[in-house]
Amino acid sequence: MIREILVYPNKILREISRDVIHFDLSLHELLDDMYETMVAKEGIGLAAIQIGVPLNVLLINLVDEQGLQKKENLYEIINPLIVEKDGSTVYQEGCLSVPGYYDEVTRAEHIKLRFHDRMGVMHEEEFSELMAIAVQHEMDHLKGHLFIEKLSYLKRKKFEKEWKKKYKAGK
Ligand SMILES: CC(=O)Oc1ccc(/C=C/C(=O)NCCc2ccccc2)cc1OC(C)=O
Ligand SMILES: [Co+2]
Predict the structure, then answer these.
(1) How far apart are the C-alpha atoms of 148 and 103, rounded to whole Å?
(2) DSSP state of 52
(3) pTM > 0.80: yes or no
(4) Closest ligand 1 atom to the C-alpha of 137?
(5) Using one digit for the tens of pLDDT, what is the confidence trace for 9-31?
């Protein structure tokens, strides 16, 4: 079912998530709820902590060349570990937990990722471009970090001012 997405500055988003031990039915239900929630909110990535579950689980479902988000392109990534990374790339990121704010973030251009799937099978894959960016963005959530923490001092000031205004106006 569709779950509530926690929004900055909710303190739960700062929790450190823990590895999945049991690849069981409750994990599969979590993955299915995350997918329904992410798609309903028009996201392309979601970490479990964003719906209040501190587990190292993330979803990424990029849009294809025709601009379609197909479930066959869904990555369910559990207990991820970046084993190699190189290069540097800048991208304007957004996050369902910081709705309506976008800013440029610098991240590694290529990564080699080790992770488990919903059956507990281990995979090792290399990613670049938007997939590499999305993985790094979602893995920051697993450590309790949001992309706005990577902004320069001035950009962060701009964000905080904007965010307070929006909250005062009751959005
Ligand atoms: C108003 C509002 O909520 O705007 C949005 C902001 C972000 C998002 C989704 C962001 C998202 O999926 N981020 C995943 C992480 C990521 C960031 C950059 C590149 C790759 C991966 C969706 C929004 O809602 C709509 C309707 O567009
Ligand atoms: Co995010």
Answers:
(1) 8
(2) T
(3) yes
(4) 15
(5) 999 999 999 999 999 999 999 99
- Is 3 a member of any domain? no
Best substitution site from 69, 75, 96 to test ligand 1's pocket, by max atoms within 8 Å of Cβ? 96
Would residue 123 count as lying in a domain?
yes
Number of structural domains the chain divides into: 1
Here the ipTM equals: 0.97
62 lies in which domain range?
A: 11-168
Beta strands in the chain (DSSP E): 45-47, 57-60, 75-86, 89-93, 103-107, 110-116, 122-128
Catalytic amino acids? Answer: 138
The minimum-distance atom of ligand 1 relative to the CA of 93 is 18
Q: Do 58 and 43 touch, CB atoms closer than 8 A?
A: no
Name the closest-CA residue to atom 27, ligand 1. 42
Q: What is the pLDDT of residues 71-118, one digit of tens each?
A: 999 999 999 999 999 999 999 999 999 999 999 999 999 999 999 999
Which residues line the pocket of ligand 1, CB cutoff 6 A? 42-45, 91, 93-96, 99-100, 130, 133-134, 137
What's the CA-to-centroid distance between 140 and ligand 1, angstroms? 15
- CATH number for the domain harbouring residue 112: 3.90.45.10
